[in-house]
Design a protein that fits this description.
By secondary structure, this protein is mainly α. It contains one helix and no strands.
Length: 62
């Protein structure tokens, strides 16, 4: 049994696992930000659909 080779293989495996977890964490953070932006956009659109006259007219007095 080659202990140093086994140790290197396990170390590389742990490194790959740690990198994968870090990348997944970053992806989840990006998806949360994207979801928050999407919710804000939907709320804005729903406000305009409830009040369709908002921003539709300009009152000018001379």
């Amino acid at each position: 049994m080659d202990i140093p080779a086994l140790s290197m293989a396990l170390s590389q495996n742990k490194l790959l696992t740690d990198v994968g977890v870090a990348m997944l964490s970053k992806s989840l953070d990006v998806m949360e930000d994207t979801g928050s932006s999407l919710v804000e956009g939907i709320e804005t659109i729903s406000e305009l659909s409830v009040n369709p006259d908002i921003g539709g007219n300009i009152d000018i007095r001379i």
